[in-house]
Write a structure and sequence with these properties.
The complex is a heterodimer of chains A (about 300) and B (about 375). Chain A is mainly α. Helix content of chain A is about 75%, strand content about 5%. Chain A has a domain of about 210 residues. Chain A has a two-stranded antiparallel sheet with strand order 1-2. In chain A, helix 1 packs across helix 6 and helix 5 packs across helix 6. The longest helix of chain A is centred in the first third of the chain and has 32 residues. Chain A is globular, with a radius of gyration of 20 Å. Chain A starts with a helix and ends in an 11-residue tail after the last helix. Helices cover about 45% and strands about 20% of the residues of chain B. In chain B, helix 3 runs parallel beside helix 4, helix 9 runs parallel beside helix 10 and helix 12 packs across helix 13. Chain B is globular and about 60 Å long. Classes of the chains: A mainly alpha (about 300), B alpha/beta (about 375).
Amino acid sequence: MSASLIIEQLLNGLQFGVMLFLMSAGLTLIFGVMGLINLAHGSLYMIGAFAAAVVAGWSGSFWLGLGASLMAAALAGTLVELLVIRRLYRRDHLDQVLATFALILIFSESARWVFGDFPLYLGVPEFLSGVVKLPFDISYSKYRLAIIVVGLAIAAGLFLLIAKTRLGIQVRAGEGDREMIAALGVDISKLYTLVFALGAALAGLAGALVGSLQSVEVGMGEPVLILAFVVIVIGGIGSIKGALVGALLVGLTDTLGRFLLPVAFKAVMEPAAATAVGSALASMAIYILMAAVLIARPSGLFGKAAG
Amino acid sequence: MLKNCGFRVALAIAIVAAAGLTLASPAAAAGKAKVGMITTLSGGGSGLGIDVRDGFLLAIKGHDNIEVVVEDDQRKPEVAVQLADEMIQSDKVDILTGIIWSNLAMAVVPSAVNQGKFYLSPNAGPSALAGKGCHPNYFNVAWQNDNLHEAAGAYANAAGLKKSFILAPNYPAGQDALTGYKRFFEGDLAGEVYTKLGQKDYAAEIAQIRASDADSVFFFLPGGMGIAFLKQWAQSDIDLPVVGPAFSFDQGILQAVGEAALGVKNTSQWSKDIDNEANKTFVADFQAEYGRLPSLYASQGYDTGKLLISALDVAEVSDPEAFRAALEAADFASTRGDFAFDKNHHPIQDIYVREVIQEGDVLTNKIVSVGLEKHSNAYVDDCSM
């Protein structure tokens, strides 16, 4: 096992983590600010990917597709917030889970109805396809490198937004005490719609970016949604910093686990059995990580202590 | 009084004759059968179920003696079991078919055949139902799960490949796949990796392939997993031949893979360019009826329908012995050409090596060679039939 392979796998873990961050940032903001569990976040991811695939296929431009993914997901997020979610803020978490689960079914079946049963095509733009030579004799996918850069840039932008802008102050205040900021004259319902649309747009962008590497199909959002929940539980619900650290931890643990665990087991048992045990354990690794974090810090790494 | 009596006798005779007529008429034409189709029509993987259903319905079009009930199993074993019970108890079906996934087949088939129903599998062929768990009423019209992977191993030998890196998802069909490949592949393994079922990111695995000294890659990643792998593989610029079973290259998903699939060799028991009348008719009729090219799943559904028609032409379902013998004879024109059942009721058939090509702006497959001729399966001797 060479050093360049390990560095390549670290980059892969970083890229996966950055992707998860785009998904979980929206989820954690929505939960933190509005106290809402949104299971339909995965559907917004799917909407982004489908919008990108359709627009890119129709126009031939990846960038128009990317723009379409942001707009379609933000629009869908806004509509969902205005029509459905708005009625749920005062309700029990269980009601929210039920309603947003219904949204998953509605979005999935509508997507099938409109786009058919077969996956759609979304490719990587020409100038980002292929590999780039990095130091230490590493060949790395240009597109994945671009995802890392874009993801980190968005993370930086979100931190500035939350820390420096008026909107960010309102968001943080909303997390702290929503009655108080409403009393201070902030239009809380507009703020909620805005935050929801922002979270949706990020999910849509993630869907489009990942869709060009993976497959654009109905039901693509739900596995990612589960990982995003793992991320925000590890990072601490409502914390953007927690989402970033949690996403990178999950991304690195999963990638390195898949790569290193079978190798490690080969040292102590025969190859076939080592592969089986190693891969089985690798798919549990992030959940073991989550359990360990919850034991040490029940409210997550950056979460506010409960009570 | 006498007159009245005569009238009654005449009436009785008329009734008996009419009853006899209704009893006799189906035998004169073909046997009647009620078929329950349980397949995946919604959620992930519904493309496969829809193709099987469409192929089957196309085959039996115009055959009024076959009545079909179609239900969606949502790819959930518990739903499939419930549907099977319902079809057997309230719909009183004679024959079940349609299941795509091996885990669902394992949940439904043993209980259905033990209740005396026939099961014709248009897809799933788990080894458990081919070996010790074989049953006189269970017929697989598609393949035994290992078959296409075995052909891929045979192809790798023929192509002079010596060191393969192999990967599949970590679930029973994935393990069967790697076992099947290794059963025929004579070279060494550069690496053997089980991925998580449903995994869509293969960066870590592709990096390992790059770092290994493999001269080829074999993968079994059905549906969306295969689309993701091939797209990422194409981005990696690694120049190694890739071999896989047809499940990642069927007509339904090729367009989503795009150019990344071009030139890839894959193994299949069916291809739209197999040169026989039955296949030409099938491909033309399918396109005319549904406006898209058929996949191997559609051909399997179609052959299942044709097999059923051929059996009903010579026997009644109500006579299980005769009906079973009629199925075993497999006296129908398969889209695959020569087709016969081995004694464990799984096909003996040629398995082809296909290459992905572009026809106009549509990606499709063409046959380049025969991977395994008249191939049966490794479990025949475990079956006590």
